[in-house]
Amino acid sequence: MENNFSVLMVCTGNICRSPFAEYLLVNLVQDIKRVNVSSAGTNAMVGERMSPETQTIAESYGVQNFESHRARQLSEEILGASDLILTMTRRQRRRVVELEPRVTRRVFTLREFARLVAATTDEMLASDLAEVSFEGKQPFRAAVQSIALSRSQLSSISDPAEDEVVDPYGHSLEVHQASAQQLVPAVNTLAKFLMRVSSETVT
Fold first, then answer.
1. Which residues constitute the signal peptide according to the record (predicted)?
2. Which of 19, 34, 40, 51 has the most other CB atoms within 10 Å of its CB?
């Protein structure tokens, strides 16, 4: 397990956005044996299940096996063990860096990471992985480093909110649906990225 690539989803309470993103990604990358996915909250409602509204939304997207989810509080230890950290907002991203500065180069908002991935061609990815060991998590970590470096090469977005997923907690089912419509495409892009990296390392 220690040699698997660890993806951590982060939101506030760890009962809506981050567990939804976690279990959706788990469903999408279940065939990649070297990837683990988990979630945590910056102000977690520790021990709570996924919210009823989020469960409804998750089921509508075919997400399964989320009944065992229990919210947990983000910690330095959890961050230190994570290879890719994806937050739902820029504020949460700042909180992660404040809590554990050593993860700065591997923390992004979820939608920011998807935007950067979309700008990475197969040729660029293959080139970045050409000199990397194919063992365990190494190719995935190298790919994330490559994405991090591309931040400076991509034009800034005009509206920072485009890099965030709206918080649906305490709101109507319609707001939960709107939140999901921001989150799901980004998770799909992430899943395709992880599959691309995995396919590049198959010998």
1. none
2. 19
Residue 17 annotated in active site: yes
| Whether 16 is catalytic | no
Strand, coil or helix: what is 160?
helix
Q: pLDDT (tens digit, 9 = 90+) per residue, 145-164?
A: 888 877 766 667 777 788 99
Report d(CA 74, CA 178) in Å as an integer.
25
> For residues 95 and 89, what is the distance between their CA atoms, to the nearest angstrom?
10
Helix boundaries (H) for 66-132: 76-80, 90-99, 110-118, 122-129
User: Exposed, middle or buried, 67 (CB in 10 Å: 0-12/13-18/19+)?
Assistant: exposed
- Indicate which residue of 17, 34, 106, 111 is catalytic: 17
| Secondary structure (3-state) at 139 | helix
For the chain, which domains are there? 5-200 (3.40.50.2300)
Place of tokens 């190494």: 138
Lookup: tokens for 156:
């800034």
19-49 pLDDT, tens per residue? 999 999 999 999 888 899 999 999 999 999 9
What is the helix (H) or strand (E) element at residue 180, kind and residue range? Answer: helix 173-200
pLDDT range class, residue 118, cuts 50, 70, 90:
confident
- β-pair type (35-41, 107-109): unpaired
